[in-house]
Amino acid sequence: MPERGSAPLLRLWRYARHRRRQALLATFASVLNTLFDIAPPYLIAMAVDVVAAGEGESLIGRVFGLTSQRDELVVLGVLTVAVWVLESATDYWAEVLWRNLAQTVEHELRVDAYEHVQSLDLAAFEDRSTGGLLAVLNDDVNQLERFLDQGLMLIIHIATSVVVIGGTYLWYAPGIGVLAVLPVPLIVWGSIRFQRLLEPRYADIRARVGILSGSLANALGGIATIKAFGAERRELGRVTAESEDYRQANRRAIWLSSAFVPLIRMPILAGFTAILIFGGLMTLDGRLAVGVYTLMVFMVQRLLWPLTQLGQVLDQYQRAMASTHRVLDLLATPRAIEGGNRPLPQVAGEVAFEHVRFAYATGGDVLHGIDLRIPAGQTHAIVGATGAGKSTVVKLLLRLYDPTGGAVRLDGHDLRELRLDDLRAAIGLVSQDVFLFHGTVRENLVYGRPDASDEQVRAAAALAEAADFVEALPDGYDTVVGERGQKLSGGQRQRLSIARAILRDPPVLVLDEATSAVDNETEAAIQRSLARVARDRTTIVIAHRLSTIRHADRIHVLDAGRVVEAGTHDELVAADGRYAALWKVQTGEIAPDPAHR
What we know:
Structural class: alpha/beta
Distance between the termini: 46 Å
Keywords: ATP-binding, Cell membrane, Membrane, Nucleotide-binding, Transmembrane, Transmembrane helix, Transport
Mean pLDDT: 80
GO molecular function: ABC-type oligopeptide transporter activity; ATP binding; ATP hydrolysis activity
GO cellular component, one term: plasma membrane
Pfam families: ABC_membrane, ABC_tran
Radius of gyration: 36 Å
CATH superfamily of the largest domain: ABC transporter type 1, transmembrane domain
Membrane topology: Multi-pass membrane protein
C-alpha cells in the first residue's frame, strides 16, 4: 500500500517498482536519442575545421587517417546520414517505450485504485463525493499519464544536453565554458522557485476540479428532481460558481507559469552574448580554432534554450504530482473490512446476532446489544419505526460494516472469519433502493449469476411476476433499461431486482422493503412468489407493511436499536404491545402516534 507523507515522485517510483526495468530502458533510449540529436552541430564544426585547416590537419582527418579534404568531407557526409538515421530510430524507440510505459502505469493505477475503492467499507464514502472519486480515477490518472508520456522524456533530454554540451565547453575552452554554464544554476534556481510557488496553486486546482465533478455528478443523477422543483437556474448557478472557482484557480497558476520563459530568456541572452563576443575575440587572436568557435556558437542555444522548457516540464510536473498525491492517497486509504480465511463451501443458512452493538462514525449507538437467532430454512421478519435499526441489521449481515460489539454469525461462524466472496455469495439481497445497471434486462438479471441459461432467467422473471412486462418490452430481455433503469417504472425495477436475487438462488435471502414500490395487486402476486421462493431457504424480511409478513415464522420488533418483542403475528397481536399498536395503525383501528412516524 503506498505510504503517505513522502515525496509523490518517490511514492510513484515505489508503486511502479515492477515497471522500473521498462523505465530504465526508456531512459537509455532517450539518452541515446539526445546524443544523436545534438551531434549535427559537432559535425558542422568538423566540416568547418576541414575547410579551414590544411590537408590531413583536421580532427576528422587525424581520426580516420585521411589526407584529402575531399575524402574527409565524404566521411563527414556518411557520418551525418548515419547520425540522422540513428536519431530518427532512437526517437521512435524512446517515444514507443515512454508512451507504452505511460499507458501501462495509467491502466494499472486506475484499475488498482478502482479495486481498492470497491474494497473500502461504506464508512469510507461518507465524506467522499462520487464526483470527487471520479475526478481521481479519471482526470488525476490521466494527468499523471501525460507527464509520464511527455514530461519525463523532456527532463532526460534537458539533463543529457546540459551534461554533454557543458562538458564540451569546459573541455575545449574552460574560460568560455564557465560563461556558458554560469546561467545554468540561475535558471535551475528560478525553475525550483517557480515550482514551489506553483505547487499550492495546482493542488488548489485539483481540489476545485473534484468539487466541480461532484456537483456535476449530483446534478445529472438528480435531474428529475431538479426539473420537478423547477431548480434548473439554481443548479446552473451552483455549477457556474464552482466552474468559475476552477477557472480562477487555473488563472492564478497561469499568471505565474506564463512568466517563466520570458524571465529565463534573460540569463540565456547573457550566456549567448558572452560566448559570441569572447569566443570571437579568442578566435581572432588565434587562441581558438574556427571549428571550435563555430561549435560553441551553434551549441550555446542547444545548451541554454532547452532550459526554457523547464517551465513546461515543471508545469506538467506540478499538475502530475498534485494528481499523484490524490491517487496514491486514495490507494493508501486503509480497508476497515478485511475478509477472513475460513472458506464456506456449504451453507445451511442459520443466522445469529449475539449481543450486537453498532455505532456509525458520526453518531451514537444505533443498535444496543441485540440478540436474534434465525434457524436455517425459516422466514423471519424485522419490523419497527423508521430509524429503529432495521437496515443496519442488513448491512451488518452483508458485512458492509462490522459491529462495534458482539458478533454476527452464519452457521455458527463469526462473519469476520469468513472469506468475503463466500459470505456475499451466500446472501441474496433485494433492497428498497433498487439499482439497475445501464444495459439490457438480461444483463441485469444475470448480474449475480453470469452463467445462467435463458430458461433459468425466464423462470426467475416469472417467479418475480416480471415475465409479462419484460416480454412486452420492444426487445424483450434484450431491451436496454437505461442508466439506473430509468426507462422502467419503480415497480418494474423492483420486480427485476427480485428476479435477480431469485436467479442467484442463495441460501439466505434478504428482502429489505422489497415490495415498497409496487401496487397492492402486484404486491400480492409477488408475495405468493416469494412464499414459494422462501421454501427451504433462510429468508429475512425487513418490512413496514405488516400485512406482508404476517405469515413469517417469527417477527422481531425493533425500537431504538433494541429488540422489544418477538413472536408470531398472532402472538404479538395478542400481547397488545408495540407490534399490536403498529398493526392497529396500519389496519386503521387507531390513529398513528406522531412519536413513531
